[in-house]
Amino acid sequence: MKIILAKTAGFCMGVKRAVQIALETAQGQDEIFTCGPLIHNPQAVETLRAKGVTPLPDDVDPDHGILLIRAHGMPADRIARLRARGLTIVDATCPHVVSSQKRIASCSAAGVPVIIVGDREHPEILSLQSFATGPCYILSSVAEAQALPALDRAMVIAQTTFNAADYEAIGAELRRRIPHCQIFQSICKATSRRQEEVQRLARTCDAVVVVGGRNSANTRRLAEIAAASGRPTFHVETAAELPLEAFATFTTVGVTAGASTPDWITEEVIRCLTTPRPLPRAG
Ligand code: SF4
């Protein structure tokens, strides 16, 4: 069986950087905490826990040690509060998210209303919202854009992982309604490139394996895209979940992995798919 591994499989730049920062910080003596898991991959989170990086629930503040800010950032006021309490803050916010935070802060300080397009419960949105010092609206659909109050001007920015086609449609509606509307392109290409590649894999392979946490939205989306093409698609967290008998008839299998999947898990999946297995005994 031939395996084609997606070039975009595995950690994106922001996640790779956050994990590196976590591992470097873990060399010291202090306990390290994250509010919510550092990345959406249970196996990687357990590996990090063993090295001293403890995930707390999203809404629980650590009361000692080091707070490591995850790639999608945290609300500025919450960080300030924890710093004031004496915690050491290590910031692993992805540079793409930092750039959105800075744009929001500067437009808002200049008196421009802010419109953030994204999922209002997502930690990145909670973080972005906190950088607005004036009016700030959060929406995720054309219908919500139509329900906005009348505005003369606004800056519009999207969650870095928002769907590009939906952002385009919402942007068109906002341009129609708001005379002076500045729309920023803040969607991270890591997501769209990964999605385009899994589509190509699904077209050219007999089956697709998507490796990554079931709690990872971007991994689930990759599996949905592959499955929508009609190809047999297998979303697994680890090699142990592969239904190996199902692969007996496939000649070419495409493998990709979510932005929070460590390479060692994907490598293990490939090893398992390509290791010859003993033939079942007759009788
Ligand atoms: S998906 Fe893009 S914005 Fe999000 S952490 Fe990765 S590199 Fe940063």
Automatic annotation (TrEMBL):
Domain of life of the organism encoding this protein: Bacteria
Metabolic or biological pathway, per its Swiss-Prot or TrEMBL entry: Isoprenoid biosynthesis; isopentenyl diphosphate biosynthesis via DXP pathway; isopentenyl diphosphate from 1-deoxy-D-xylulose 5-phosphate: step 6/6; Isoprenoid biosynthesis; dimethylallyl diphosphate biosynthesis; dimethylallyl diphosphate from (2E)-4-hydroxy-3-methylbutenyl diphosphate: step 1/1
Keyword NAD: no
Enzyme Commission number(s): 1.17.7.4
Residues passing through the membrane, by range: none
Positions annotated to bind isopentenyl diphosphate: H40, H72, H122, S216, N218, S260
Binding site for [4Fe-4S] cluster: C12, C94, C188
Positions annotated to bind (2E)-4-hydroxy-3-methylbut-2-enyl diphosphate: H40, H72, H122, T160, S216, N218, S260
Keywords attached to this entry: 4Fe-4S, Iron, Iron-sulfur, Isoprene biosynthesis, Metal-binding, Oxidoreductase
Entry note: cofactor: Binds 1 [4Fe-4S] cluster per subunit.
Active site: E124
MF annotations from Gene Ontology: 4 iron, 4 sulfur cluster binding; 4-hydroxy-3-methylbut-2-enyl diphosphate reductase activity; metal ion binding
Signal peptide: none
Reactions it catalyzes: dimethylallyl diphosphate + 2 oxidized [2Fe-2S]-[ferredoxin] + H2O = (2E)-4-hydroxy-3-methylbut-2-enyl diphosphate + 2 reduced [2Fe-2S]-[ferredoxin] + 2 H(+); isopentenyl diphosphate + 2 oxidized [2Fe-2S]-[ferredoxin] + H2O = (2E)-4-hydroxy-3-methylbut-2-enyl diphosphate + 2 reduced [2Fe-2S]-[ferredoxin] + 2 H(+)
A biological process from GO: terpenoid biosynthetic process
Xref: CDD domains: lytB_ispH
Keyword Mitochondrion: no
InterPro entries: LytB/IspH
Binding sites annotated in the UniProt record for dimethylallyl diphosphate: H40, H72, H122, S216, N218, S260
Cofactors: [4Fe-4S] cluster
Function description: Catalyzes the conversion of 1-hydroxy-2-methyl-2-(E)-butenyl 4-diphosphate (HMBPP) into a mixture of isopentenyl diphosphate (IPP) and dimethylallyl diphosphate (DMAPP). Acts in the terminal step of the DOXP/MEP pathway for isoprenoid precursor biosynthesis.
Family: Belongs to the IspH family.
Name of this chain's protein: 4-hydroxy-3-methylbut-2-enyl diphosphate reductase
Provenance organism: Candidatus Ozemobacter sibiricus
Encoding gene (name): ispH
